[in-house]
Amino acid sequence: MSDSHRGSCLCGAVRFRTDGALRGVVYCHCSQCRKQSGHFYAATNVANADIVIEGTESITWYEASAFAKRGFCKACGSVLFWKPRDQDYISVMAGSFDKPTSLEGECHIFVGDKGDYYSIDDTLPQFEKSTPSIPVAE
Ligand SMILES: [Zn+2]
Ligand SMILES: [Zn+2]
């Protein structure tokens, strides 16, 4: 594959490979993403058909809402995936990819719910909640 990317959790128990171009990175500032990650989410999206995940037995899926579940490594705790229930894609944390990632920032969502200890200083678009093209659990 010409545009293949690899990534893993911190301990390497969970590894993945994606094929094809990756969507720009969406930064989600909602309270769920902040609580789970310790800051805010930075994730790309991959079609289910374009990702192969190894070590799935090491993933714990947390049913964060009726809409989506959040996957992390049960050994090292790395936050890896956000998977909507009825969609054909999976969100993958940008920081879990090995360099070079080819990833670039796309936008900020749920900025109305962001933490009060940082500011958003780049020029990317900001959305109060989600955008029509990016379904995200509230
Ligand atoms: Zn791990
Ligand atoms: Zn979020």
Automatic annotation (TrEMBL):
Keyword field contains Coiled coil: no
Domain CENP-V/GFA per the UniProt entry, residue ranges: 5-119
Keywords recorded for this protein, A-Z: Lyase, Metal-binding, Zinc
Protein name stated in the entry: GFA family protein
Protein family (similarity comment): Belongs to the Gfa family.
Entries under Pfam families matching the protein: GFA
Record Gene3D superfamilies: glutathione-dependent formaldehyde- activating enzyme (gfa)
Protein origin, superkingdom: Bacteria
Family matches, as InterPro entries: CENP-V/GFA, Mss4-like_sf
